[in-house]
Amino acid sequence: MYLDLWVETLLDLLPFKKHLSEMLFFRYFPLKNTSIERLFKDFLEKTNEKIAISYRHFLKGNKSINELNRGLQAFHQEVLNDFIASQRLEVAIVTFGSSISTIQEPSLLSNFQMPTLSTSGTTKLVDAVRLGMDLIDTRKQWYKQTGQSYYRPMMILITDGEPDSDQDMGGLSIEVRNKVDSKSFTLYALGVEGYNHTKLASITPTHTPPMKLKGLAFSEFFKWLSNSIGVITKSKEGDILSLPPASGWAQMIID
Amino acid sequence: MNPFGVGVESPENYEQKCLCVLVLDVSGSMGGNPIRLVTL
User: Chain B residue with minimal CA distance to A52?
Assistant: First the structure.
């Protein structure tokens, strides 16, 4: 049996309150304190269950999702501040946990408020990328149908984990590379601490390997993205683009 | 085939479009440290 329990739940279930000060200590020294693990193991021995434990609640001020949300808000505002980009950039948002969802259909940023994301579940990464590719195909058809020209669409994939075991990374890799090779779209993958670089690299084109986010520098990344989009949306076909350096948010990966 | 454009969303403008699809991981581990499996 696998459970993903909040620590607060454990606090309710178990006589742990006398150890609260120790837990608070753990919040600030998460990598050095091991006695908290002893407490959980005692619980597991008593209940004879196998439990996936997250210490996330000890790190409330430092969650990836919070920084991602801040980055998205900043991105929204930065684009709106750039008149040309705001007229040309359409954003769609697909999220993935145990399920996938299109939480924003393609639209100019002036037409919607950036959502605040929350977390749950596992990592249906392949399903989400496929949904993203479908969105791109559908939107390109609409552009053609309505006489709008377009730059090559881009997909930005951000993940901190590895896909669920039922996710067909091999099949996705072929699909993505075929579409990228035919210039249907460009895929950029961004790994957050804990991601599986090898698996992520297996689906990204060789000329755009996954980049690792430096710490939780989401705001720096989205600032870079909005600046890059500003450059792209002012370009003409055949221009050689000079995008801003990624040094503020990217971390070097040595394979 | 839809010769009159009925039911088709009209563009807000005819600027060249740049489509960006954000595919974002909102799995549990994005809410804090990666989940750790404790095995006895």
Answer: B37
3-state secondary structure chain B: CCCCCCCCCCCCCCCCEEEEEEEEECCHHHHCCCCEEECC
Q: Which residues in A lie closer than 8 A to residue B17 (C-beta atoms)? A: 88-90, 143, 148-151
Is the model's pLDDT at B12 over the cut of 60? yes
Q: Which fold has domain A63-251?
A: Rossmann fold (3.40.50)
Instruction: Please state the pTM of the whole predicted model.
Output: 0.76
The values of phi and psi at residue A99, to 5°, are -135, 170
Closest CA to B32 of A120, A111, A79: A120
> B6 at the A interface (CB within 8 A)?
no
Q: Helix or strand or coil: residue A21?
A: helix
Count other C-beta atoms under 10 Å from residue A20's C-beta.
10
User: Which chain A residue lies closest to B35 (C-alpha atoms)?
Assistant: A54
Nearest to A118 among B26, B33, B35 (CB): B26
Domain extent listing, chain A: 4-61, 63-251
CA-wise closest residue to A147 among B29, B26, B9: B9
Interface ipTM: 0.77
- Contact flag A52-B36 (C-beta cutoff 8 Å): yes
More confident residue, A69 or B9: A69
CB contact, 8 Å: B27 with chain A? yes
Nearest to A194 among B15, B22, B34 (CB): B34
